Amino acid sequence: MEIEPGDKLHPELHLYNSYDVTWPLIVALGAYRLVCENRMVVEKMLFRFKKRHVLELERMDFQRDVSTALTRFNSQVKTWKEWRTQPLSLETYKKVMKAMEFGKNATEEIDQRMIQEAESYDDYSDFPIMDLWVFFNILTWYITHKAVSLNHRVELENRLRRAISYFY
Fold it and tell me: The organism sits in which domain of life (predicted)?
């Protein structure tokens, strides 16, 4: 599926198991997206199941769970496509940035990236014109490329999940 031309998401189903049940059975359904020229891939986990000592896969019923996860995936893609048509307002920008609790340097880096990615500028406010999808990608770029540690990255990802509520 494509959010826009060239921006593809690939759902993938992974099954892990061992013949002698030393490993747990793992079923993982995720959506994968190439986000960077350095070949970095971002994953959105849609469904994950892990169970030890599974001797017979036939007794495991994943059809409903995987189907539900794929429905959620389709819904998420629809939301992301809608973001492509919704302009980022100055008010939304301020609310999201406040919720993210970025420091001064982080805010400056994000603002610089917004200037680079902007289609143009609002004549009245001199605010960069872009859609919500571009802004979301700038925030995820900062989190994945600039966070100082894994713990900081996880915290920023959690803040972003909450901050996205201001997109609506």
Answer: Bacteria
